Amino acid sequence: MTQYSKVPFVHEWLSKLSYPGASWSEVIHTEPSLDHLHWAFLFAIFSAVLQLFCYATTKLFASTLIGFSSTPPLPRHVKSKAEQSYYRRVGEAVRYTRPIELSQYDCKALSATHCDGQLSAKEIERFLIACNEHHLECRKNETRFQESLFPILTKTFTLTFGVYISYDQAWLYDRNLFYVGWPHEQGLDGVADIKLLYIAHIGWYVYKLFGQTLLDRHLKDFMAALVHHCTTIVLMSLSYHASLLRVGVAVLLCHDPSDIILHGAKLMRLLQQTICMNVLFASLVIAWFVTRLLVFPYHCVLSTFLEFKEQHGNKNTHDDVVISCCSFLMTTLFILHLHWFWLIVKAVRRTLSGKPPSDPRSDNEADQDSQQQTNSTKK
């Protein structure tokens, strides 16, 4: 079947891998089955490797790109060189290029020892607290940078690959063709590549489910994102098993663009590129509305209620149950899209009112954690 693939070298390489269960050659030459989905765990591992790459890139370049330093700034009100020197002496004494444990230091002793009593204990305490707040903000910015870089890289790749393998397929643009010849007579053209796209996506979501639950920050929309990931994994697995690959590809292509734009806007915000951020933010509103609130429900969700029922409904109880489950799961995703779009609209209203732009999904929990850590240094 690789002769029908646009990337035969990828399938040849995967076929050579010694991997438990069905071989990749068997995956692309047989009808879709749940037995094939163990390959998703390999792609989950690939996703984890990419996450490590993003982590290393963040550690190497984020501080330079974002413009923060491990050395905390001196208080803004300090003008004289003598005062600046006193603050630097205190900072060097407590190693202020890293988080400071205030309980280990006596501010009065620091004042007497390192600045001849010219700075009060209260001023030194405020300075050390500000140093810790600086380090916490740096760490949060590194986390935000990594959180944006990973989906930009992975989703850009999957979107590009998805468009490349399907842009010339007539069924992508006509929902009446989604189910023609279903399930076993839809032709071989592009099936191997579609299976690769499908299984890679499932693996990505498996990793994200693991990472978001155990590794990443729990943001304000944690539960909504958790429901989204679980729903997506079940939907993709079920539609793969039922050979509903054509409509599945359309669903994937409706979702990836908004993710890329969203995280691109967040990255531009970190890099303080205001114009690019505003352009991407405006593009996000349009892309989200068009792809997720118009094209997705009309082109994909409705096809399971109308076209499938016309062509294959009431013929097989099992098939009716499967398509009903897929319809329910896609409707669940649509409801989540409405929820997130409302958050986007709130962010637009905030920006239009003159307030600084913010990601309404993010940072509440992180900020609470940071405040708790900062407060702990005061004890």
Annotate the secondary structure layout.
Elements: H1 8-16, H2 24-29, H3 39-66, H4 81-93, H5 107-114, H6 121-166, H7 191-214, H8 222-241, H9 245-270, H10 274-305, H11 307-312, H12 317-352, H13 364-376
Helix pairs in contact: 3-6, 3-7, 5-6, 6-7, 6-9, 7-8, 7-9, 8-12, 9-10, 10-12
Summarize the structure.
This protein is an all-alpha fold. It has 13 helices and no strands.
Overview of the structural elements:
The chain contains 13 helices and no strands. 32% of the residues are buried. Mean pLDDT is 88; it is low at 365-379. Helix 3 (39-66) packs across helix 6 (121-166), helix 6 (121-166) runs antiparallel to helix 9 and helix 7 (191-214) crosses helix 9 (245-270). It starts with 7 loop residues before the first helix and ends with a helix. It is an all-alpha fold. It has helices at 8-16, 24-29, 39-66, 81-93, 107-114, 121-166, 191-214, 222-241, 245-270, 274-305, 307-312, 317-352, 364-376.
